[in-house]
Amino acid sequence: MSSIYYSSVYTEIWGNPDLKPMSKYDINLIWQLNRKYTFSAFAMFEPDYFVQLPYQPNDRMAVIMKETNFDYSNCYGLTASAQFAVSNWLNGNVSATGLYRHDKSSNFFDLPFDRTFLSAIIRGTAVLKLSQRHNIQFILNPFFQSRAIQGVYDIDPLLSLNASLRWTSNNGKWSVIAKGNNILNNHITTRSKQGNQDYDLKLWMNYASASLTVIYRIGSYKEKKRKEVDTSRMGY
């Protein structure tokens, strides 16, 4: 649509009747070693990629938010992941990704851009068995992303952390789960400093939260026997 919606005194949301559909093409090459280590190379091509971006005009104090097509947004990357175990009390997995991104737009107001950037993403899961006798586990899920870009946006580094403490009774009927999400209470900070732009935006995800869940399984449900799926090629 070509309409303009005024969401605040300074913010305008513009429609774009010229918006075109986007396409996405993925290529992946995966190699697994000893059923514990996985390496992959990938490429993602997105001609006419579109996303809502901010623009500040020169003639007035306003921020225009508009869905706009890029010429393309292409990503190339390498990922390495591994499973690990220390005796029978610690196990988990970790993965690291290196990502090269290329965003180009020839028709973004009077601010065309052609930007490239190299980023890294690290994530993992660690399961610590605090007590085998009492079936108590502590599970940690960290995630880190280095500085990145999206169009005119610069995205600050992000570190988030989830954790849970779980107990299961010996007969499997009772479970108690204490869980913390986004423990560091982090958010995504983006900014645009291209050309004459001076725009900052903080995107809050789920706020830091804690929960306690108690589960009791009623009855003597038995799962139907099914043919086992061969998952050996996936490292299990």
Offer a quick outline of the entry.
The protein has strands at 4-6, 11-14, 25-33, 37-47, 50-55, 63-69, 72-86, 90-105, 113-131, 136-145, 148-150, 153-155, 158-168, 174-181, 187-192, 199-204, 209-216. It is an all-beta fold and 236 residues long.
Molecular structure report:
This protein starts with a strand and ends in a 20-residue tail after the last strand. The mean pLDDT is 90. A hairpin with a 6-residue loop joins strand 15 (187-192) and strand 16 (199-204). The protein has strands spanning 4-6, 11-14, 25-33, 37-47, 50-55, 63-69, 72-86, 90-105, 113-131, 136-145, 148-150, 153-155, 158-168, 174-181, 187-192, 199-204, 209-216. Helix content is 0%, strand content 61%. The chain is elongated. The protein has one domain (25-47, 71-222). With 236 residues, the chain is mainly beta.
Tell me the series of helices and strands, N- to C-terminal: EEEEEEEEEEEEEEEEE
Distinct helical segment count: 0
The structure class reads: mainly beta
Query: How many β-strand runs?
Result: 17
Radius of gyration: 24 Å
Give the total of domains: 1
What proportion of the residues is helical, as a percent range?
Answer: under 10%
Query: What is the makeup of the main sheet?
Result: 9 strands, antiparallel
- CA-to-CA gap between the ends? 50 Å
- Runs in which pLDDT lies below 50 for 5 or more consecutive residues are none
